[in-house]
Amino acid sequence: VSHRLSYSAHLLINIPFQFIFILFFNFLYLVNFNTDRMMSKDIPQGSDFTFENLPYCVFTTSDLAIHRIGVGIGDRILDLSAVANFYPKHLQDALSATKLNLLMSLGYEAWNEVRNVTKQILNLGSSTNFDPNVQKALVEQSKATFHLPADIGDYTDFYSSIHHATNVGVMFRGKENALMPNWKYLPVGYHGRSSSVVVSGTPIYRPYGQTIPVDEAQPVFGPCRLFDFELEVGFFIGGPPTKLGERVTTQEAAKRVFGFVLMNDWSARDIQKWEYVPLGPFTAKNLGTSISPWIIPTAALEPFKVDNFPQDPKPFPYLQHDEKFNFDINLTVEIKPENGAPVVVSRSNYRNLYWTALQQIAHHTVTGCNLKPGDLMASGTISGESPESYGSMLELSWKGTKIIKIGEGEERKFLKDGDEVIIRGFCQNGHSRVGFGSCSGKVLPAIPFED
């Protein structure tokens, strides 16, 4: 785009400065407002991937096996490697890479620059303002295979939904002791493992493990019986790596959030019950975590900010911030039985989180723990107040005491082999829509041990 604008600048050399100034701001107006109108003609109605969104992904196609970074627009993907020369030189290596880590590392200002230039490029490829070079760089999503968008160095899972934490506490400790004493003082979390984070569509095997089928009995070993999903939203860390001993404040943290993904943190509840004391989740959680292939930029979610969840008692100063960093993201979970139609079993919302991503980052680094671009942090299960908004089978079935109907003749308390879990998310404000696509995974039977 820059080299296309240089010719226009050459023609304006002898024009008075005031006129150039007016033309420049008129150009910005056209880019920021008219481009949206031009591109809307090329985007199917109801699409998640609108001009206001522009989410990132990593993909391949049958005719080109090299991993490339793309931006979703309607039912297509803009291959950034094919148009990298349209961007300033200091961005081109990051956009030609096979993962998003390098772009993540460049920081907040670079992300905004890429976003602005991408809008201009898409204008050149629209049906209103046709450019064959840009058109060649647009790939149909139906012809793409999606991959993990980044090399994930570290993965941390929080426990930040007050309704979910309360529900679980009531089930196992009673109403009087539902929340542990520390819960309202700090964002509770645990360090997971990045090796088994997989992209949407990857099947998940039912795990083997030790369980206690009957309380006070001896443990047994076998396939998990109480297999569950967890409705979560994760975010990727960006910016330059921090050094060991360096903290990130809540005021600085917003510029560290590259973007958000849908997540299913699969859980083996019966294995978890036996193993989690005293150090917390281990093999009940390391069997697989699914994330959506699309990373929604934080900038795309700006119009959907809502008030942060009221916090009482007031957090310690290092966890306080005035900036709104909660979002009105509608979330659904569907279960599709094998040979059946998908049925929505949960409708929740990201705004139900008690602790914000900024507080999660500040607490994560208050000890001086270092961050790297591509680190993944997750919300924990997102549940609302009402039963239909619970974000796990554990809550929906209330520890197996209630039956969940999922279509004609199909009932569940926990997941069965062959079930596919599909998580979706979107923001809607009038005609403006920003969607997350979907995060799905099918439960496969446990792999038996050889005799």
The tally of structural domains comes to 2
**CATH level-3 fold name of the largest domain:** Fumarylacetoacetate hydrolase, domain 2
Q: Give Rg in angstroms.
A: 23 Å
Q: Please identify, by name, the CATH architecture of the largest domain.
A: Alpha-Beta Complex
Name of the CATH superfamily of the largest domain: Fumarylacetoacetase-like, C-terminal domain
**Number of discrete helical segments:** 12
Q: So what's the CATH class of the largest domain?
A: Alpha Beta
Helical residue percent band: 10-25%
What is the mean pLDDT? Answer: 91
Oligomer: single chain
Number of strands: 26
Task: Characterize the structure shown.
The chain is of the alpha+beta class and 451 residues long. The chain folds into two domains: 56-147, Fumarylacetoacetase, N-terminal domain (SH3 type barrels); 155-444, Fumarylacetoacetase-like, C-terminal domain (Fumarylacetoacetate hydrolase, domain 2). Helix content is 24%, strand content 27%. It is built from twelve helices and 26 strands. Strands 6, 7, 8, 13, 14, 16, 17 and 22 form an eight-stranded mixed sheet that branches. The chain has a five-stranded antiparallel sheet with strand order 4-3-2-1-5. Strands 9-26-25-20-21 form a five-stranded mixed sheet, with no helix packed on it. A hairpin with a 6-residue loop joins strand 20 (330-336) and strand 21 (343-349). Helix 2 (17-40) packs across helix 5. The longest helix is centred in the first third of the chain and has 24 residues, at 17-40. The protein is globular. 41% of the residues are buried. This is Fumarylacetoacetase. Residues 52-149 form the Fumarylacetoacetase N-terminal domain. Belongs to the FAH family. Mg(2+) binds at residues 265, 285, 289. Its cofactor is Mg(2+); Ca(2+).
